Amino acid sequence: MKKTAILCLALVASATAFSQERVIRMPEAPSKTYNIAEEDGGSFWCAIEAGGGSTAMEYKKNVAMLSTTYTGGYRFNQYLKVGAGLGVIYYPNSSNVRDTKYHLAMPLFLNVRGNILSEEIRYTVPYWSVNVGMAIPDGFFLTPTVGLRIGEKRNAFLVGISYTFRHFKAYSDYTENYSGALLKLGYEF
């Protein structure tokens, strides 16, 4: 019995002598370098957009429009971007409505835009945009837009539908108001 007790004691002592401490190490989070301007949202942005559409007025002659615009500005965060832009508008059938022999106009405008939802975890987010300005030689215009941004924070394709409100100088020497719809395609970087 004495031998059995010594044998058991030797087994217990040897089992504790060979035991190992098991430390489970979890993987560390990857180191990430942050661009402070991108984290805070403050940075410059640009957008190039092309669109086409027509006025949709009852009891008036309608005007088709094709436009190309360039907008640049400052991004405060993903929900607010402010900028200014310029472009070219081509009116294929403008001689029916506008009191000018030229088919082109040059819009100069201010732009305010932003995302409706966060772009942190989404590849496609809805956005809004408003252009307010003057088209030379036509006059005042206002164009709000809603659409989708498809892509990353700094590289995204834009697809939007716009309502446009415009003043045209008509043949009778007074300004007429026209409303219409546009489809816009663009790229924002």
Task: Characterise this structure.
The protein has 189 residues and is mainly beta. The protein has one domain: Porin (Beta Barrel). It has helices spanning 2-18, 36-40; strands at residues 43-55, 64-77, 80-90, 104-115, 124-136, 139-151, 156-169, 175-188. It has an eight-stranded antiparallel β-barrel with strand order 1-2-3-4-5-6-7-8. Strand 2 and strand 3 (80-90) form a beta hairpin. The protein is rod-shaped. The N and C termini lie far apart (86 Å). Mean pLDDT is 83; it is low at 34-38.
Topology record:
Blueprint: H1 2-18, H2 36-40, E1 43-55, E2 64-77, E3 80-90, E4 104-115, E5 124-136, E6 139-151, E7 156-169, E8 175-188
Antiparallel strand pairs: 1-2, 1-8, 2-3, 3-4, 4-5, 5-6, 6-7, 7-8
Reported for the largest beta sheet, the result is: 8 strands, antiparallel, barrel
Strand order of the largest sheet: 1-2-3-4-5-6-7-8
- At CATH level 3, the topology is Porin
Instruction: Estimate the mean pLDDT confidence.
Output: 83
Would you identify the CATH architecture?
Answer: Beta Barrel
Number of domains: 1
Key attributes of the depicted protein:
single chain; 189 residues; mainly beta; Porin; 8-stranded antiparallel β-barrel; 2 helices
Quick structural overview:
It is built from two helices and eight strands, in the order ααββββββββ. The chain has helices at 2-18, 36-40; strands spanning 43-55, 64-77, 80-90, 104-115, 124-136, 139-151, 156-169, 175-188. The protein has an eight-stranded antiparallel β-barrel.
